[in-house]
């Protein structure tokens, strides 16, 4: 019995060591931790080159090869190589939908949390994501799921006031923060995991009239183990 426990603890220690080594090597390559702020509304520009960088043809009248807040946001999302966790209230922007679908087709593991009421609004892409085979869960509580954040590869956080809609991108005064600071990323990973578990239709930990805060808490150990997946 003790041998099994020792082996288990050893595997956890090795996994954590590899994660720390990976973070250290990434910082050496980049020179510094990524921190970026984007403001909206974004200038309207063609983004087709982000989906087909090697060759594309576009007859749209929008400016081409222009770097905008929206194009930088798309680049950040499309940089995912292993996982993308999305927690948003409103999701109707077609380019963001295309980016998520492109990642799904590459084999990136994607999970989406959305507000249950917004999914029924015309133009919502939530059901399209589910029909495409992407795992989607909707909040079961009586309050709005009003978050707007995403976590790329368990290391990079995208958060701010921006709903994932065309109006928010092109017409609203909005902000987005992009950061790799672990002390900022980890709480969002923990919150996503907690809400994901609460929204599992197979679980009965949350009654239909309970608030999300009443759900089973997630320990720091569980979060650390989850980031190794």
TrEMBL record:
> Can you state which reaction this protein catalyses?
a cardiolipin + H2O = a 1,2-diacyl-sn-glycero-3-phospho-(1'-sn-glycerol) + a 1,2-diacyl-sn-glycero-3-phosphate + H(+)
> Which PROSITE patterns would you find in this protein's record?
PLD
Q: Which GO terms describe its cellular component?
A: mitochondrion
> Under the GO molecular function aspect, what terms does this record hold?
RNA endonuclease activity producing 5'-phosphomonoesters, hydrolytic mechanism
What are its GO biological-process terms? Answer: lipid catabolic process; meiotic cell cycle; piRNA processing
Which UniProt keywords are listed?
Hydrolase, Lipid degradation, Lipid metabolism, Meiosis
List, for all copies, the residue spans of the domain called PLD phosphodiesterase. 141-168
Kindly give the Gene3D superfamilies that the UniProt entry links to this protein.
Answer: Endonuclease Chain A
What highest taxon heads this organism's lineage? Eukaryota
The record's annotation in PANTHER family points to:
CARDIOLIPIN HYDROLASE, MITOCHONDRIAL CARDIOLIPIN HYDROLASE
- What family is reported? Belongs to the phospholipase D family. MitoPLD/Zucchini subfamily.
In Swiss-Prot or TrEMBL terms, this protein is called: Mitochondrial cardiolipin hydrolase
Q: Which organism is it from?
A: Echeneis naucrates
